[in-house]
Design goal:
404 residues; alpha/beta; Rossmann fold; seven-stranded parallel sheet; six-stranded parallel sheet; 15 helices
Length: 404
């Protein structure tokens, strides 16, 4: 099968789940093209396992002479289609001028991608995220007739539902990475209540994620992996550590990831008297994340919401930690409870609740045997519901069905 995958940015350190799928699609013998809508991100951390995707990646400029020539040729030969796309974008994004402008800028690029995929004989296009990749798939189908699908993860549907009735409603199928996302879309977008949804979790290669023995707890090593921004809730974790720290014995916390709040969080750690125990490492390759997970006593994912309503889907780092049989503490947002079942596969608390998070830290520290038992059950859940073999197989079956 000739399969085109569309992402917005490439490479992106936080999107390991996309690259795992792409690598697996190619490993199974499919011809894959990975289109990224923005320029190659020089200097971004690229995990070793994802380096294979560089050879599969393709970039089309926004406004080169060739792109503009293709757009004009398409406008001349398919004026009604282009007019229909423009009219739908104006109606859909009437209250979102920034999104409308970005979609107009994207349109010429999409005419080139449509031509390339038609010439290549593409069987299917899949947009990772319902934002610009979803828009690209919707436009390409109208221009070239290539069937498309969209994966809905988190911010791509939570921030705004504008145009989702079109972009998702005209898709061959819509993949959602959690049951929560399916409920959310059916509640927020009435036109999608009869839409075909494929609930297909983010997958990890459990064979490569060895189940580890019980972690050391003296010293008590906490680990956070993710970006440093409001919706990740790291500020809540710091305040919880300030409250629980005296009851955790000798402890330390490693934070792997970068983001706009790094300086603010470092200042908060110092203000709370935690700076001697907190280590901000910045973005790290997957291999270093795996090593840090092996050393950790517990992984903490304190996710919350930002001012725009953005939050998590089901963080891949949670899935990987449980695959390694590492205890986890997470918050009850979005699809996380579908993986972390409180008292069964981990400890779950309400988001932005400093006291509850502090109590959870104390609970895991006080009873490491119970925490490890939950982590072992978490490994079993990951093997049953989040294994890459099954999640990729489900997607490929849906792609094949759409082609037929």
């Amino acid at each position: 099968m000739r399969l085109a995958i569309v992402v917005t940015e490439f490479p992106k350190v936080t999107e390991t789940f996309v690259y795992r799928d792409v690598v697996e699609f190619a490993r199974r013998g499919h011809e894959v093209r990975l289109y990224h809508l923005t320029r190659f991100r020089e200097g971004e951390v690229l995990h070793d396992f994802a380096r294979k995707t560089i050879d599969l990646s393709r970039y089309v400029p926004y406004a080169s002479p060739g792109v503009l020539a293709r757009f004009l040729a398409t406008f001349v030969t398919r004026p009604l289609v282009i007019a229909g796309v423009v009219a739908a974008l104006i109606r859909g994004y009437a209250r979102h001028p920034v999104w409308l402008l970005k979609s107009f800028v994207l349109l010429p690029k999409c005419t080139v991608i449509a031509r390339e995929l038609a010439d290549w004989g593409a069987d299917h296009l899949h947009g990772e995220f319902a934002t610009h990749p979803g828009t690209c798939g919707w436009i390409v189908r109208r221009l070239a007739g290539v069937p498309y699908s969209v994966s809905c993860h988190a911010h791509d549907i939570f921030r705004t539902q504008a145009m989702l009735d079109k972009k998702l409603g005209e898709a061959a199928f819509v993949r959602v990475i959690s049951e929560y996302n399916e409920r959310f879309l059916k509640e927020r977008v009435p036109a999608l209540r009869e839409q075909r949804f494929l609930v297909n979790h983010v997958g990890v290669d459990t064979e490569s994620l060895a189940p580890l023995d019980a972690p050391a707890t003296e010293p008590f090593r906490l680990l956070y992996v993710g970006s440093l921004e409001q919706r990740k809730g790291v500020h809540v974790l710091l305040r919880a550590l300030a409250a629980a720290g005296p009851k955790l014995g000798e402890w330390s916390c490693d934070l792997l990831g970068g983001g706009p709040m790094r300086e603010e969080l470092e200042a908060l750690a110092k203000e709370l008297g935690l700076d001697g125990s907190m280590r901000f490492h910045g973005p790290r390759p997957y291999e270093e994340v795996a090593a840090a997970t092996e050393r950790a006593s517990v992984l903490v994912v304190p996710s919350t919401y930002d001012s725009t309503g953005r939050t998590e889907g089901i963080p891949t780092v949670l899935i990987e930690a449980l695959a390694h049989r590492r205890p986890v503490i997470a918050t009850r947002v979005s699809g996380i409870p579908e993986l972390v079942v409180d008292g069964e596969t981990g400890v779950l608390v309400e988001h932005a609740d400093v006291d509850a998070l502090a109590a959870a830290l104390e609970r895991v520290h006080a009873d490491p045997d119970a925490a490890f038992a939950m982590a072992c059950r978490g490994r079993e859940k990951v093997e049953a519901e989040f294994d890459l073999e099954g999640t990729v197989g489900g997607q490929l079956a849906a792609f094949e069905s759409a082609r037929r």
